[in-house]
Known about the structure:
Structural class of chain B: alpha/beta
Low-confidence stretches of chain B: 58-67
Low-confidence stretches of chain A: none
Order of helices and strands of chain B: HHHEHEEEEEEEHHEHEHEHHHEHEH
Order of helices and strands of chain A: HEEEEHEEHEHH
Mean pLDDT of chain B: 91
CATH architecture of the largest domain in chain B: Alpha-Beta Barrel
Number of domains of chain B: 2
Mean pLDDT of chain A: 96
Number of strands of chain A: 7
Strand order of the largest sheet of chain B: 7-8-9-10-11-12-13
Oligomer: heterodimer
Shape of chain B: globular
CATH topology of the largest domain in chain B: TIM Barrel
Number of helices of chain B: 13
Strand order of the largest sheet of chain A: 2-1-5-6-7-4-3
CATH superfamily of chain A: Electron Transport, Fmn-binding Protein, Chain A
CATH superfamily of the largest domain in chain B: Aldolase class I
Radius of gyration of chain A: 18 Å
Number of domains of chain A: 1
CATH architecture of chain A: Roll
CATH topology of chain A: Pnp Oxidase, Chain A
Distance between the termini of chain B: 40 Å
Radius of gyration of chain B: 20 Å
Helix content of chain A: 25-40%
Helix content of chain B: 25-40%
CATH class of the largest domain in chain B: Alpha Beta
Amino acid sequence: MSVVKIEKELAEIINSKETIKVLATNDKSGIPHVVYKDSIHVNEDGNIEFWELLESSQTQQNLVSGIWFNKLAAVSVLGRDKESYQIKGYPVECIDSGRYFEKVYKEVQELLGDVELGAVWIIKPEEIKEETFKKRQREDEEKYPILKHLDRLAKK
Amino acid sequence: MAKDEHWREKELNLEEVKQKYPDVSSFMILKVDIQRRGIVCTEKALELFDPKLHSSADTNESTYLIDGRIKKSPVGLTLRDGTFIPLFYNFTSEKAQREAYVVDAIDGRLVVTDNKKVIDRVSYWERPDFYDKFTSKGIPMSSLVSTRPQRLDVTVSDYCHFWDKSGEGCKYCPITPQFRELQRKSDKPIVERNDVEGVRETIREALKQKGRYSSVLLSSGSILSGKEIFDDEVDGYIELLQAIGDSFESKKFPSQIVASAFNEKQLVRLYEETGLMSYTTDLEVLNKEKFEWICSGKANHVGYEEWKRRLYAAVDIFGKGNVSTGFVAGVELASPNGFDSEEEALKVILEEAEIIGEHGVSFAANVWRASPHSIFANQNTPSLEYYVRLFEKLDKICRKNGVGRYTDDYRRCGQHPGNDLMRI
């Protein structure tokens, strides 16, 4: 199995506080669920990690479903300079007890005040795709020149 | 019963059951099978076990001997999906009908294996900070309160008085026979009741470890004495719950008792005089006739129908979703008076579960192990598939009735694998 690695530059974008971070999951029957997750970051092992504060949330349920039935989750990030990436991966671990959980629990409370921590989730990347619009547009036009409105090609 | 060398050929194995039930969590199926067959650790796995870092069986070491060889042993495992498996070593691998799973260390990582095949990565439960502390009277706090990864466990009394009269103890249960054996072997008297002041101090100390606990569980062997049956047991719970409640600002705190079947007056006292949030009383066997045979003490002193009636009455006091009943799944097939087939047992048990569920009660089903010291020590337990079918149906019953989520669940308990299914 090939190992998909998040390169340093991308990790920096993902870990930046200025980056907008979104997580998409599906429930068991395939219904999608998309949420903003500021805590998404790349951890020391090179995996995606984030904190699910609400134990009863739909995201929590969907990730449990993901780890049980091998379903992909997707993270989309939009950096300060409009660079955008999608990372698909499998949830591989739900940390809801132990020293590391307690460390994050304290961090969360320092950051957000009196809130809960449901679990720390680890998502192992399987596929990384740049979605920055300019780059995607270039790729699209090179690969599918037929997909263009004629007025864009018309003489001015 | 002697070990059947060909047992693997006679029932579906873990992989076959996973394939046959693709909509059921494979983690849950593994948990059931570990509980059903037992588990042992290799020397290599125990090299990764550090009693200073990991939770070990401090409070009742003799319960956790592995074939009499190991004194400090891990008390639980955590799976990758965040669920817990309490480890019970009170089976002996020479006598068990099926081979136990094996916890091993491969490339420095802790794994569960079966037949030398790696099933999944696991980790040991971590040791709580307060286990190194003593009360003001010098009592080790670990002897007063034990833990699961997210729960504090407090016992009112280790002794069940249904065992006072010969033949009235529940036939699958090893706890009171083990307690009696400990008393026999011990140089000093073993105190039946917990130390209320010591528990008060221990809980206050435990809560200093932020993020470590999300609930408190109190349990007890049945205490039949009092003006009305169980009055003294109720007093014991109230006294301890009030002592524990001293550590909280809010009156109510996430808590559960697993107790005898109390009458309305006793239940109201528990609800009004303490911070208790949920109540469990174990029917043990979901069939009147089998209950009367297996739990004759409960049957003689309270009776099956009255036990159920009290369970339903508790829903009116604690609220729907806050009352559950435990049962020892599989024991209904014990011989000689149990059901003749798994098919018949499933049909009868699930019909009863439907009725109980409709009253707003959820379930905390244990996987039956034929424990040494119990009357049923040498019995054979049901197939893995039996449990998967049972838990799949129980899950549907709980969903239909809107009960079962967050009571005796994957995180606060871990002992009832069927309840893990409610996570999604």
